[in-house]
Amino acid sequence: MVARTIPVDAFDLVIFGGTGDLARRKILPSLFRRMRAGQMPATARVIACARGKMTRKAFQQMIREALLEFIPRPEDRPDDLLAQFLEVLDFVALDATGEAGWAELGEKLRPDTVRAFYLSVGPALFGPIAHRLHETGLATADSRIVVEKPLGHDLPSARELNRQLSESFSEHQIYRIDHYLGKETVQNLMALRFANALFEPLWNAQHIDHVQITVSEKIGVEGRGGYYDKSGAMRDMVQNHIMQLLCLTAMEPPARFEPDAVRDEKLKVIRALDPVPIGDTVRGQYRANGTTGSYLDHVENPDSRTESYVALKVQISNWRWAGTPFYLRTGKKLRARLSEIAVMFKEVPHSIFPEVSQRRGNALIIRLQPDEGITLRMTIKDPGPGGMRLREVPLDMTFADALGDMAEEVPDAYERLVMDVIRGNQTLFMRGDEVEAAWAWTDAIIASWEDDRARPEPYDTGGSGPEEALALMHRDGRRWREIEG
Ligand SMILES: NC(=O)C1=CN([C@@H]2O[C@H](COP(=O)(O)OP(=O)(O)OC[C@H]3O[C@@H](n4cnc5c(N)ncnc54)[C@H](OP(=O)(O)O)[C@@H]3O)[C@@H](O)[C@H]2O)C=CC1
Ligand SMILES: O=C1O[C@H](COP(=O)(O)O)[C@@H](O)[C@H](O)[C@H]1O
Q: Name one GO cellular component term (predicted).
C-alpha cells in the first residue's frame, strides 16, 4: 500500500486488556502497520495493562508472536521494523478494580503528550476504569478514552454506561468504536454519495424502489457461544454495524465532514425509523447438516431461541425515503462471506421496448467485503443485428483494479480508527445519543419477539437463510440478491 498518511506526534496509548485477544489480533497489528506506513512515530509509547504479571520483555515476546501470526507474510513485517515496533511497547501489571499497578502506570505517562486509554476489557470494567483514570488524575483534559461493543445490552444499560463514562470524561473525549465505520468501503460510501454529483438527485424515494443491506457470514458462533447466545444477530450486528450502514446510506448530506455534522445526520435517520411490525421481521437459527454442527451445538442452552439470522423490512419516515423500504439481513453460517449495500432503482416510467417483459431497473451495488468495489447494473442493447433486444450488464469497478498499487492491501478498520483517536477526530465514532437511539429502536423489535415467544426458523448452513426471509421480499414483488462468494 502506498502510504499517503500524515504522521502523528508522539503519544502515549494505554491498552487496558493489552494481553487479550482484541489487542493481540487487531489493535497491535494495526499499530504495527501504521508504523510501517510511516505514520506512527518511534517516539510513541504503547503501555499494555493486565492483571497477569509479566516483564516488559515477556510482553514484547508475546506481541512478537502475535505479529508473526496475524501478519503472516514475512515481507510485510521486516525484522528491523518489528524490532523498532517492539521497542515502543511497555507493560504494567495492573488490576482495574484494585490498587496494583496504578502508581506505576502514572509514572510511565509523559507530561504534555497526547494520552489515549483504550479499554480492551469486558464492559463491566468500562465505568470503574473511567472513574479511576479521572480520580487519579491520569486522564488530563485532552485525554481520550476508547470503548467498543458491547456498548450496553439494551437502552437502560447503554444509558447507564454513558452516564458512567460522562462522570469522568466529556463527550468530546469519548471514542465509541464501531469497526464497520473504519472499513475503507464504508467510508467510501460517503465519498460516493457526497463527492459525486451523479447520485444525489436520484438518491430518494422518487427514484429508488428499495435498498438491500446484507452482511452475510460464512462462520458460525463457534467459540463465542457464551457471549452470542445472550446477544443474537439483532444485538450483535443490527443495532451497531448494520445500523451504521443504514445511516450512511440514508442520511442527508452533512454540512461539513466534521464529527457532529455527520453524527447529527445519522441520528436523524435513526430517529426517523418506524417501529417494525413483527410481521416484517424474520429470525432464523442454523441447523446441522451432514458435516457441520448446529447453532445449538455451540451454546449451553439446548433450547436456545437466540437468532443467528435476522431479516427486517424497515421504513424511514421522512421526505427522502417515505415509501422506499430498506431490507436488512445478516446471518451466520450462510453460503458466503459477503457484505453489500444494493440500491435498487425504479424502472423507467415508460418503456419503449415493450417486448422485454423481464427488465429490471438499474442497481448500484456497493460491495463492502470481500473484493471491495462498486457495480452499476445497466441495460444495453444486445450486440449484433438481431433486432432491438436488451440485456443487463454490470459496469464493474473493483477498487483493486481501479487503484492498482494503492489498493494492494486494504487497511484494517482498526488502523484508521486508532489513528483517528490519536488525531482527535471523532467523525468515525458513535456519539452517546446515537447509540441510545439505536438501542431504543432495536429494543422494541426484540421485545415484540419476546412477547411472541416464537422459535427462530431453522435454516441450512451454507444456504442463504430461512425461507421466510425470501417470503418477506416476495410478498412485495421483490427478491433478495443472491449471496455469492
Ligand atoms: N476479541 C474481539 O475480536 C473483540 C472484542 N471486543 C470486546 O473487547 C473487549 C476485550 O475482548 P477480548 O480481547 O476478546 O477479551 P480477552 O478475554 O481476550 O482479554 C481480556 C483482557 O482484559 C484483561 N483483564 C481482565 N480483567 C482485568 C482487570 N480487572 N484489570 C486489568 N485487566 C484485566 C485480561 O488480562 P488479565 O486476565 O491478565 O487481567 C486480558 O488482557 C471485550 O469487551 C469484548 O467484548 C469487541 C469486538 C471484537
Ligand atoms: O462485531 C462483530 O463483527 C463480526 C463481523 O465483522 P467483519 O468485520 O468480519 O464483517 C461478527 O462476526 C461478530 O459476530 C460481531 O460481534
A: cytosol
CATH class name, domain 11-148: alpha beta
Residues forming a β-bridge with 316: 273
**CA-proximal residue: ligand 2, atom 14 (nearest):** 236
Quick check: CB of 217 below 6 Å from ligand 2? yes
Test site for ligand 2: of 237, 244, 334, 372, most ligand atoms within 8 A of the Cβ: 237
Q: Cα–Cα–Cα angle for 344, 345, 346, nearest 5°?
A: 125
Span 122-140, pLDDT tens digits: 999 999 999 999 999 999 9
**ipTM of the complex, rounded to two decimals:** 0.98
Q: Is 237 exposed, middle or buried (0-12, 13-18, 19+ CB in 10 A)?
A: buried
C-alpha 218 to ligand 1 mean position (Å): 25
Closest to 211 in 3D by CA, of 251, 264, 255? 251
Residue ranges of domains in the chain: 11-148, 181-474
Q: What is the pTM of this model?
A: 0.95
Tens-place pLDDT, residues 60-88: 999 999 999 999 999 999 999 999 999 99
pLDDT attached to residue 6? 61
Rounded Cα distance between 410 and 372, Å, is: 9
The superfamily CATH assigns to domain 181-474 is Dihydrodipicolinate Reductase; domain 2 (3.30.360.10)
Of 134, 153, 172, 241, catalytic: 241
Q: Which of 344, 346, 406, 351 lies closest to 375, judged by CA?
A: 344
